[in-house]
Amino acid sequence: MARNEKEESIHIGFREAITLIIPYLQKKLWSQIKSVFWIVLYLSLFQLIILRIPIKEASVIALGISAVVFGLTFFLEGLFLGLMPLGEALGLRLPQKLGMISIMVFSLLMGIGATLAEPAITILKASGSKVSPWEAPLLYYLLNDGAESLYRSIAFGVGISVVIGMLRFLYGFPLSKILIPTILFLLATSVYAQFDENLQFISGLAWDSGAVTTGPVTVPLVVALGIGISKVSEKNEQSSAYGVVTLASLFPILSVFIVGMYFSGKLPKPMSEESFFKTGIHLQESKLLLGEKLKTFHAKEKFQTQQISIQTKFQGISHKLYEAFLLAIRAILPLSIFLILFLYLILREKIPNPEEVQLGILFSIIGLTIFNFGIIFGLNKLGDQVGGKLPSTFRSIELTDSTKFIQNFNPKAVLKAVNEDGKEESFFYLKERKLYTGIPYHEENWNPKSKIYEYIPIHGPIFGKEDNLLGYIVVLLFAFFLGYSATLAEPALSALGNAVEETTVGTFRKSFLIQSVAIGVGIGTFIGMLKVLFELPLVWILVPIYLTLLVLNKFSKPEFIEIAWDSAGVTTGPITVPLVIAMGLGIGNQLGTVDGFGILACASAFPILSVLVTGLIVENSRKLSLNDMDSKTKS
Amino acid sequence: MNTSRVTAIIHRDLAESVIKVFKSNGIYYYHMEPARYPVLAKRGLWFFDFYQNQSIIDTPVIIFEIICSDKSVSYLTTLIRDSAELNVPGHGSVYSESINLLTEVPNPYIYSTTLKAKPIGFSGLKGIFCILPRGSAEPLARLLLQNGIAVPTISYGTGSGLRDRLGLLRITIPKEKEILKLVVHSSDAEHVLDFMIEVGRLDLPGRGFIFEFPVGHGLLNTKVSLEGAKQAASMDQIISALDQLYGNMDWRKKSNQFRQNTRHRNYFEGVNIVLNSKEETMEFAISSLRKVGVTSSTISLNRLVHTGNEESLFTPAREVANLLIPKKNQSEVIEVLQEIGFFTTDYEGIVYSMEIPRAFSYQSKPSKKK
User: Fold this and answer.
1) What is the pLDDT of residues A589-598, one digit of tens each?
2) Nearest one of B129, B62, B122 to B91, comparing CA atoms
3) Does residue A406 sit in helix, strand or coil?
4) How far is B166 from chain A (nearest CA, A)?
5) In which region does residue B293 sit, left (phi positive, over 0), alpha (psi from -120 to 50) or beta (all else)?
6) Which of B155, B162, B173 sits opposite A505 (nearest CB)?
7) Which pick of A280, A419, B161, B252 has the fewest CB atoms within 10 Å?
8) A66, A519 in Cβ contact below 8 A?
């Protein structure tokens, strides 16, 4: 192999470069197409075949989805080239060069920085406008004016957990020593919160924000840092690098509860809408709760849809693209600059392939931009459409997004008909293309001044009468498959899967991890949907499931415990969260639920169960390789 | 001092007891690397068996490497065998190779003992070391298992070579490799080598390379499949009983099962230089070696564990590079390593070499290109 050639760099012509790049790109693209394919196919088929509603703006959505695929390809490649090696290099060097306190300070800063950069958190805020300030004042405050303190508390929670995770690697104590007390404490807090009028509404938010924090920026970075530190730590004999992610999704729950308790006293108690406006609340309380919005709150805005010209549409798209770019820059750049500066200035070390890392950072910024854009235009739109119309399986709903404005409507065209009970109902015929359809007439939609009749089509219930059982079952099944197929596309899980496959030398396959997590998420969203449909308190679900998990921990190997708990934190990222929230809010609005939160919390509790259970099965087959079949009972 | 390297491949569930024995017997330093060994799964339902394609279950193992003096090899291997009960099929294997230490290393790094033990296992073994692109090891391993040749061990590594001279375009070529190691009887070695070259298409450019290394004594894992025992003794037990009965593995010779090699292969010989240094420093060392003609190498990660009471002299996170070079270039390589300070605390380097009688990789025609 070594034939004394002198060192020379090979000159690659344009054509050769292309022949190298194309198969590479093909391979990477293909693997992303495979992961996104299921969720897209599922959502569109569900809408077309089961809900039987045509997809609005299908071309924009198609563009958005291809953007998701391209974005994911670049972003993940960028992670592997740039952020992960950087994180691992830091993890390797930190304990060699710096003392304990500096490591702790660094971990705290990194945890906070990574979380503030995480794009998924902002989605929580988006759901804030749907909460009414009188039914759940505390929840309303934390999602609107108090959102900043919510973010900061979450970020601080993550920071603390990174510190604890790194301490664990340095001193090599088992994960369950932190896990068990933390979980028990959290469960106790949730039970306590259940009995407080105001706090009971934030336990959904608290558990959900724990699930949301750990996304595609935090996870790879924290895992890489952990891999680095655990390699050089002398005390960590069975070197495992996981467990930080799960801590990073537990501590924020606690910090959200603490923030909730702090504000709970300052805010009014939940009350009915009437008493909220009549008797009112203290000026101080209302200032804190509603802020500037106090005056504008009374006037309910009416939904207005206008024809949008192509030009403004295009402007909208380019504006969104710019926004997505800013979001990506904000997520990646400050964090990577911080890491690079730390590596060069404080540790005074060099990394083997600086240009690869730079390219990686560039790739992740490009990737995240395209990805964010694609999420807004592709998956979110599709998800909102399906989520909003989902209740039509068991209820009749108004399709507000396909409202038609009938110009020059003539009330003389209104006819009368008799229904089964003998009551009179008004309707008119509408000619659409060559068909005449009967449409019920509602006086309030007729505007005599402008001579426009606003016609909101009504859809459903698809499966039989109002509130029929089959409709509910379809919704629950929908939730299961949504959770399952969205998880397959989740980028942070893919990154974790790669890291796990690498550190376990292929004994724990990436595809295996993703499949078992996806099934868990499916079950979780199923149960979470049950919670929203029947308004079960979240504690009823979380307490038994987490207690079961703690028992299962006893029987599992540390390897599986850490991977299982970590994968739970990872599952809920930028693809699952908006889709699940859209679904939860869609159903919640139809049913008049106060908070649609809690589905994510379930969606991140059940994967732990599924991974632990599959872990037990795998462990069993590995035992077989150690012993002979008949002597199996001996050990 | 004549030194040897003892390699033990142990099922991970048993690793803890081996580590305990290391601690209690004053073995201060050992290298640890995670790996897996594939086992054929049980035959499924008839209809999954349609293609005779048994699925593979990957068992996690840990590869321990200990550098020791020649005289303590037998004692050390006995120690390992007893602690992990290696005579039970499926527990793992242990073998020794003689190495040539090229650097000064601190004393406790080389284990030596005055305690004596009878040599265990068989002699006349050959090891095969094969580097393949990530993902290609499994099909090859399946064939090896199905033919009952040996139980391979697969670990991860990265390769460097042509790739590093491409500039940034190198990211388009995956550097991730799989390292497949197995130990067979010498009489089979040439045929197995040929078989692997053929199946792994190693005669094509960029597919990797393979070499054979001499093994001293060894005790090998015989568990090929998880197929349940239908008889009083499992096939694996019968094989190991016969092994012990004959005192060697000659009866397991499989040469006549293989096609006679029709093609003449251009094997070459040399030395395998093993460099071991702090993680993330190997890249610099390898790139400086390029000027003496070392163009390709295989790098894998391992962990150097220290068990004594006093401070360890080494950082635990290590990188290992295997470079195959012509023997005459060995001194040149050492010179370069000294120049860059490979043996100082910047790198914490350890270097040893072993003779390679036969190696193979794709080689472009020897004619000089411009």
Assistant:
1) 777 766 667 8
2) B62
3) strand
4) 6
5) left
6) B155
7) A419
8) no
Tokens 């895992």 belong to which residue? A223
Could you tell me if B217 and B95 are in contact, meaning their C-beta atoms sit under 8 angstroms apart?
Answer: yes
Interface subset of A 493-532, CB within 8 angstroms of B: 502-507
- In degrees and rounded to multiples of 5, residue A263 shows phi and psi of -85, -20
Residues of B in contact with A355 (CB under 8 A): 168
Reference B280, options A408, A232, A120, A108; nearest CA is A232
B317-325 and B297-306 strand pairing: antiparallel
Residue tagged 């459409």 (tokens): A385
| Of the candidates A203, A178, A503, A80, the residue with the CA atom closest to the CA atom of residue B317 | A503
Residue recorded with tokens 């004016």 = A145
C-alpha B179/C-alpha B165 separation (Å) is 23
Contact (Cβ atoms closer than 8 angstroms) between residue B210 and residue B130: yes
Contact (CB, 8 A) for B219 and B77? yes
Task: Please tell me the predicted confidence (pLDDT) of residue B343.
Answer: 87
CB B167 to CB A12 under 8 A?
Answer: yes
Kindly report the three-state secondary structure assignment for every residue of A23-55. Answer: HHHHHHHHHHHHHHHHHHHHHHHHHHHHCCCCC
b/e map B339-355, b = 16+ CB within 10 Å = ebebbeeebbbbbbbbe
Q: pLDDT tens-digit profile of A157-197?
A: 999 999 998 888 888 788 888 889 999 999 999 888 888 87
Please name the helix (run of DSSP H) or strand (run of DSSP E) that holds residue A490, with its range, or none: none
pLDDT at A211 over 50: yes
Instruction: Give residue-wise pLDDT tens across range B175-222.
Output: 888 999 999 888 888 888 888 888 888 887 777 889 999 998 888 887
Which residue of A21, A503, A505 is the best one to mutate when testing the B interface, meaning the one whose CB has the most B CBs within 10 A?
A: A505
- Smallest CA–CA distance, residue B341 to chain A, in Å, is 16
Burial of A106 (C-beta count, 10 Å sphere; 0-12/13-18/19+): buried
Enter the tokens of residue A231.
């390699």
**d(C-alpha A133, C-alpha A518), whole Å:** 35
How many angstroms separate the CA atoms of A554 and A86, rounded? 35
Q: Please compute Rg for chain B using Cα positions.
A: 21
